[in-house]
Amino acid sequence: MKTKITALILVGIFAFAMTACGRRDSNADSAVRTDSQSGAESRTESVENTETEENTVSDTAVSGQTEEGNSNILIAYFSRVGNTDFPADIDAVSSASLVRKDGELYGNTQYIASLIQQSTGGDLFLIETAEKYPVDYDETDEQGMIENRDRTRPELASHVENMDSYDIVFLGFPNWYYDMPMAVYTFLEEHDLSGKTVIPFVTSGGGGFSDAISEIQNLQQGAEVLSDGFKASHSKIDDVTLEDVQEWIDGLSLLNKYLLSIDIHLIYVFDIFINLFYTMGKGAGRWQK
Ligand SMILES: Cc1cc2nc3c(=O)[nH]c(=O)nc-3n(C[C@H](O)[C@H](O)[C@H](O)COP(=O)(O)O)c2cc1C
Fold first, then answer.
1. Overall number of domains in the chain
2. Are residues 147 and 55 in the same domain?
3. Which residue of 56, 181, 194, 198 pairs with 225 in a disulfide if CB–CB is 3.0 to 4.6 A?
């Protein structure tokens, strides 16, 4: 009996360690896939481990074909940063949709995406349009209004080439005209997310998701689109912490189940082996008598 208890304690410690590794691999690099012309390899950087000069625009939104990550979680997002050629010295104060964290400037949605990446270790993917949006906020606002009115489908420069390898897709965007930016429609019409769990997140001036969640479900009828997405108002982005995002993710029971499933399988396998050895040991003892 003592042996079995010790073995179970060991399995417990092992399972805990595996769970911790799986859930908190926050500094792991993540792949970003795009097909833009450069073809150069790029890596995302987490908020925590960047060592760049103050006020530089974060290169979480990078271009270039990259090697595949090994996660089954994709974090696809659209944001002004990455879709605008901002001058390197732009400051957060002059633009309503930029947030400064640890000396780096992020788009609001990009920042939330980076927290989700830190929390899950998933692969970040920027939904990037072929044509950049204007640096001037009002001009982007005007363009967004026209695109929404005309139901435009902006051409994308980035495409997920291995969508099959993802089971969970976090999908983030800013609210544009009480809707998703039209580029997100292009993304959703280009990729089949059937059989996947789609977890939306949004940043906005107060409009939240508007009707985006039902729009996503309409476009992806074979996917399970969770309704309890994460939303943050642009005036409060600065206050959103990794813990907030982690707490939200912890509340997503399906995701937890999935993230833990690998570890649980390992526990089963170890338990079978330990029971086997225990039984054999008992048996051997009996036989020796
Ligand atoms: C073209 C455009 C349209 C917008 N429309 C809305 C809107 O209808 N409702 C709202 O609450 N916020 C609206 N906003 C504000 C953005 O949703 C908000 O600033 C968001 O956090 C920007 O995210 P980003 O920095 O990732 O691009 C709009 C912003 C832009 C640029």
1. 2
2. yes
3. 198
